[in-house]
């Protein structure tokens, strides 16, 4: 059974508008995420829009699709991955020195049976895969911070 919530956060010395510009450009997701190799929105950035994605872990590549479920400019961007029903979100909050960025993966109802089977049989099991996802979230946030502060 997957953990209901995985989360990472970072404080960035840049205005919310600059951080939002980086996070909301989904075509840049491969620059941030160690696992994402492609994220292509179909029909622009808007609530309800679909994306086509390619992920990579070592020698494994797999495609996914998602739908943008929440889009509040300079506050929140969330999308639901159709294949495993997880919801990924980025939330931005102004701070005295810039922006707090929080990345979350929600799986309140677990992930799909197919997803659990593949993770357990091909990717070393759910616990190690989720540890790797949190490491990847921290890496993504660190990369976004570096870009926003440069």
UniProtKB/TrEMBL annotation:
Coiled coil: none annotated. CDD domains: SRPBCC. Gene3D superfamilies: 3.30.530.20. InterPro entries: Polyketide_cyclase/dehydratase, START-like_dom_sf. It holds the Pfam family Polyketide_cyc2. It comes from the Bacteria. This is Polyketide cyclase.
